[in-house]
Amino acid sequence: MQIKYDTESFFDEMFDEKGQPRPHYKSFVDRFGELTESEFNRKREAVNLSFLQQGITFTVYGNQESTERIFPFDMVPRIIPDSEWKQMARGLEQRIQALNLFLKDVYHDQKIVKDGVVPAEILNSSKHYRKEIVGLDVPRDIYIHICGTDLIRDDSGQYLVLEDNGRCPSGVSYMIENRQAMKRAFPRFFPKAGVRSVLDYPEKLLTALQYIAPQGKASPTVAVLTPGVYNSAYFEHCFLARQMGVEIVEGRDLVVESDDCVYMRTTEGLKQVDVLYRRIDDDFIDPEVFRKDSLLGVPGLVRAYKKGNIGLANALGTGVADDKVMYCFVPDMIKYYLGEDAILPNVETWLPYRKEDLEYTLENADKLVIKAANEAGGYGMLIGPHATKKEIEEFKAKVKAAPREFIAQTPISLSRHPTYCDEGFGGRHIDLRPYIICGEKTQIIPGGLTRVALKKGSLVVNSSQGGGSKDTWVLYSDE
Amino acid sequence: MLCRVADSLFWMARYIERAENTVRLVDVTLQTLLESEHSPDEDQYKNWSPILASLGDQALFESLYEDKSSSNITDFLIFSRENPSSVLQCISAARENARMIRDQISSEMWEVINRTYLWLKKQDPQKVCVEADYEFFQHIKEFSQLFQGLVDTTFPHQIGFEFVKIGANLERADKTCRILDAKRYMLQDSPAKDDALDNAQWAAILRGCSAHEAYRRVYVADIEGDTVRDFLLRSRDFPRSVLYCLTRTQLALHAISKCPTTHFSNEAERRLGQLIAKLNYANPNDLNGKEAHKLIESIENDLGEIAVQINERYMFSEIVDPAEDLEQAQA
């Protein structure tokens, strides 16, 4: 099969301006050329069926019955050459170090505020800042143990950070399952020089979790805490628990006893838990402290956490770093804590809480992307150039009413990647979510989840809004 | 093992067993109808009502369907979303339970349940109900058997395995009782005792428990009520007899508690031991004729109580059996 289409004015991952495959795609394009269309379609159907039968699905909540869908998988892999990856990995490592130092600082002395780098008003008005843990020393000073930073590339191919996702980033199971599917479907396509493996992610995760056991306990009991079977990422929670060989627990399986330790209810009685990889947001994790109406959490968990009897990953309170206004200050944090310049730049951003930025945002709303500072999943967003006059006016009113809760960014024409669609191969916009694990050392998993906006021209890659995914190959060499 | 996991293993197994038994009952009844004289729908219902009555589903069926045709009853027992013990609802519930513990069971077990669920949702109820689709029934039965085989061959024979065995065997014992009980509701066409019809009905009951061939190996003579009852209640080697299922449950319970079967360490074990003794040492008079249904009814009650006690000891959760809930609501 031949991949051929007009790359237009976008940065295309596979083809250069002359329409030639870039060096790191060359061997893949050659081999792919030998494949017939019927072979390709047969493999595609086999992969989709196997995802469905294994139940590698997410749940879409609709009008009547919630339905399970597979996350659409595109068989053309995204390939990243070695030197590009190394540069990106350095940038990510620098960023996560700064974020962890920042979180420790804001929950202790707040030097960064006193030194005027981050305005006090921004910190104090941050929705996810948890006063409950001020002054608390978390194990090993690590707040974000698992991070899924979203990266995009602009029309010159420059990588930019879109957001950091320091709470409960999801999607890592797709990274692993996508790789397994590609290895089964196209064993011959993997380049001789080799693709870096992502399959040891679960072991790395387990080691990082064991690292935060209370009092350095030698063989701690680790469990994955899930909101339950109706959560859209439930498959992933189970997947990770099984791969790590630990229990998956729901809030109702756990109890905090009068000794302020956490136990799970087993058929042999209560058994102590030392570390929780929790996939429940702060708001729902302990009804004694946060939302009282939460049925998902564990009453007393925060009490046990404060006593140092349970390790939580990620730590409580990391949401303050996910605030999109705070995101703008990350390059300043890197400078402040590490004395370095940011390797991976942010997207150019305006902060309407500043008077002059508000004016600019309102005047240019039709040319900007405006986002709610504390929403995720592609919700609460205005894409100015694609919006109607009415939508723009409505959004402007919201921004005027609560300028602190919004940011504005120049629209980035995301890079495109050949993707198999109804009309054959076409260029579709993509992003990249690499996964970072912080334990004894910081590890950037060489690969990640490449999400692709399957709808022609669309810039929204979220699974809830018609996105798909690709396997992501990080090569050992540059070609 | 987490209590919630034990609970899900128990119900996953129980629902699959329930689906298989319902399918077998429907299949046998439809086959019987094929061989009976061509009769209007009203007469067909006579063949169905004992089954619905023994399952405790008659009132619900009559409230949902106006037309009491065979195809409506089949729809009710197989596909109805309103009937919590329909095959579709059982398989959905088994799958929900399996999904909650899919990290605990083997991927083979999960995939066969998931595949069957996806397959079942694609079936055309109209076709199955009107055509008495043999392949459809066979598919469900083979699914259940495949599942049990996978439990034996891909799932570690540890404590979780025992909870699966308990779920399946309690359900099986209960269903055997209910099928036996169905005879009580079967009408005689004429007031005078019709031996041929009586025998045919007992034969259908044996087939409903997959016991026809096994029974024949033991009793070569005519099929008679007292021997059928004795066989289905007390056979020591036929795997669907009540006594066999109870003995297997006892083994499982004691494997979990590590208490020898000569003693008991909890209420569930005590009740179960008592019930086994009751069957083992039953007075022949209690097994025969009119007294028999009293014994069967008391076994059904004991089975319910044992499930409650197992739940209290190991699962600490509210026991919710939608079918029983509904019965209570209607009572």
Task: Describe it.
The complex is a heterodimer of chains A (479) and B (331). Chain A is 30% helix and 22% strand. By secondary structure, chain A is an alpha+beta fold. Chain A has a domain of 60 residues: Dna Ligase, domain 1 (2-Layer Sandwich), CATH 3.30.1490.270. In chain A, strand 10 and strand 11 form a beta hairpin. The longest helix of chain A has 25 residues. Chain B is globular and about 55 Å long. Chain B starts with a helix and ends with a helix. The C terminus of chain B is likely disordered. The interface between A and B is medium-sized, with 22 and 20 residues.
Distance between the termini of chain B: 37 Å
Count all strands of chain B and give the number: 0
Number of strands of chain A: 23
The CATH architecture classification of the domain at 350-409 in chain A is 2-Layer Sandwich
- The average pLDDT score of chain A comes to 92
Low-confidence stretches of chain A: none
